[in-house]
Amino acid sequence: ARPELQETCQAIAAITTEVSAGIQPQRKSILFSTATTSSHHDEGGDDKEKISVTFVNKDGTEKTISVPVGMSMLEAAHENDIELEGACEGSLACSTCHVIVMDVKDYNKLEDPTDEENDMLDLAFGLTETSRLGCQVIAKPELDGVRLALPAATRNFAVDGFVPKPH
């Protein structure tokens, strides 16, 4: 067995164990997110604050990238050639950008998922207590160092090599 894959499985199992042990993801009372994203970058946007995000692929390999504060994880994945589909282009109409936040503490730093996001997550394969849609996870300073696992399977909508881009 490959060590990277074992580590990914162990991390996801640890999340499940934490939840089983009573360390539940905290639910806040916010009913909607005021976070916005934009795929339009300011000229000279390199001076924007960035955070470190590690994507853990289904085969256990990892890729750590710098993500500007305010950008969605879906956009960040697309800009860095990480295979996170996003068939609806970030319009909250599918579950193909499903990610698993690997640390419950990081999950608890996120805004609560909206009812619309929860409806889409219900369609995702491999749903966990810390699952989110990548288009709804927005980079912010307190998420620096976050690790996101890509699930082993997704409902793939891509056809003929089409790679959707968030709006």
Automatic annotation (TrEMBL):
Gene3D superfamilies on file: 3.10.20.30
InterPro entries on file: 2Fe-2S_ferredoxin-like_sf, 2Fe-2S_ferredoxin-type, Adrenodoxin-like, Adrenodoxin_Fe-S_BS, Beta-grasp_dom_sf
Domain 2Fe-2S ferredoxin-type: 51-154
Top-level taxon: Eukaryota
One CC-aspect GO term: mitochondrion
GO biological process terms on file: P450-containing electron transport chain
Keywords assigned: 2Fe-2S, Iron, Iron-sulfur, Metal-binding
Gene Ontology molecular function terms on file: 2 iron, 2 sulfur cluster binding; electron transfer activity; metal ion binding
Cofactor(s) annotated in UniProt: [2Fe-2S] cluster
Record protein name field: 2Fe-2S ferredoxin-type domain-containing protein
Originating species: Aegilops tauschii subsp. strangulata (Goatgrass)
